[in-house]
Design brief:
Length: 150
């Protein structure tokens, strides 16, 4: 009976060791599954954080694009307004220049007319003075011949 007791003890010890190994395997499996679960949760959290950051960056980028577009539109409107203002000013300056040209032409025509009138007056005066000189000369000559003759 000695051998059967040792065989039975060995079997019990083997069965106990198998149970302990199975318990250890089960515990290790549970730890592996827990580690995998925590790893998956960490990956999901990292993905969620990355997605949130990407979303924030997209929102910020869109806001910057919107501001850039608004600035471009404002600049374009300012350029158009300045062009309209300058165009109006150019039209006004052209009108002023035309009016001044007309005024200069009118004054020039008036001056030419006044000059012509002065020349005519001068010419008439010169003719009149020549006539007076001639008449005075005739009188003088007549008076001189009248004194000399009788």
């Amino acid at each position: 009976m000695g051998e059967t007791d040792t065989d039975s003890d060995a079997l019990r010890a083997g069965a106990l060791e198998i149970r302990q190994l199975r318990t250890t395997i089960a515990a290790l499996r549970e730890q592996i599954e827990q580690a995998q679960y925590e790893k998956d949760r960490a990956v999901q959290a990292a993905v969620a954080t990355s997605n949130a950051e990407i979303s924030q960056l997209k929102t910020a980028m869109q806001a910057m694009r919107d501001r850039l577009e608004e600035a471009r539109i404002a600049k374009e409107e300012a350029v158009q307004e300045t062009a309209r203002d300058l165009s109006g000013e150019v039209v006004q300056l052209k009108r002023t220049a035309a009016a001044l040209r007309e005024r200069i032409e009118m004054l020039s025509a008036q001056s030419d007319q006044q000059i012509d009138e002065l020349k005519k007056t001068h010419s008439d005066e010169v003719r009149h003075l020549h006539g007076t000189i001639a008449a005075l000369r005739e009188r003088l000559e007549g008076a001189a011949t009248g004194r000399a003759g009788p």
